[in-house]
Amino acid sequence: MLQKKIPLAIVFIFGVISILQYFVPHPLSQAYYDTMLKWMIGVGSMAIFLALVSFIRHHQVRLKKKEHAPYSAVALLSFLFMTLVGFIGGMGPGSVFQKMFYYVQAPLQATMFSLLSYYMASASYRAFRAKSFEATLLLITAFIVMFSVTTFGNYVPGVPKALEWIMAVPNMASKRGIAIGVSLGSIATSLKIILGIERNWLGG
Amino acid sequence: MHISHNPWVWVAAILTLAIFSFLYKDNPFFKMAEHIFVGVATGYGFVYTWNNGIYPNLLKPIFVDHQWLFIIPLILGLMYLSVVVPKFAYFIRWPFAFLLGVGSGLSVPLAFRASLVEQIKYTILPNPHGMSAILFINALLILIGVVTVVLYFYFSTPHEGVMKPLTKTGIVFLMVGFGASFGYTIMARFSLLVGRFEFLLGNWLGILPWLK
Known about the structure:
In chain A, 81% of the residues lie in helices and 0% in strands. By secondary structure, chain A is mainly alpha-helical. Chain B has six helices and no strands.
């Protein structure tokens, strides 16, 4: 009862009411929508505690292993420091928290992602050989897109126009086709979840 | 050359170089920087979520505005922590059930309108500002592309007979779309790389005159 029936009932009741509220033009319906948005953000945000439990447990275990201990200690200390400066000093302009974001987190994140450019370039060199017509098409399109966003490519006659056409016609058609497929899939899955046909989310 | 005297810029520069050291091979400097990133990002996420998610949507309505109905999402949120006690771990399904129920319910009509009806509408309706021959050909190409791409993802029928040339056409459009996405992703990463070098050579070392 507590393990499966109540969660399934919660999904069904909230799911049906949430669909119906869209078709009911009444202040009550709007109030329900506004409240549910707040509840959803609130409940979703509380999942951060689940992440924190997992993060602390993971590094707690690694602290006992000699080769990982210094790194896990650094991760935990960085987390503690960031949390403390955030709660004590606030998040406002000029705070240590904001400086930590701009001078520690942002550079680290940007450098990590920029590092991927090397690996993507080398991996794509190995993977995207022009073996078939489709692969050649992908390569040519990628080349035109990459070339046209460079300063030099911008001055080559016809290249900016070609990019504009690629983005507005074939790219738009493929993205629109995918969007239609995704929305059909998401509507079907949502209905299956609400009606209790799809129960994988309940786990074992 | 005007090297920066700002200690924060030095911290950012050293961490940037530590991450770049991975290009040589995995090393303790990279691992240290990686773990600093994990810790700082987790801390940032926690403080940000507390200030923008938990406090304004759960704690303020209850303890400041005295809207007692908000105790329900607070209790649901606390149920996440039931995983700490294995005997009561199944209570974690309740907040998930709530999120799935409301999320699915709200998304069905929205997805139907925004992603399905609107997309189909702009694919089949003519341009209200009139149509030249080129615009007509482009609109026709978009229509053919959308229909064939959707058909390509229709797996209830084998891609044989009439379906074969249609799905083949769908693949052509998909490949152009993937190529464009791939090209933009690569260039986005390269612009980040350029940004990091600008920071190291300009903001830190002061070699670039326009970025001191």
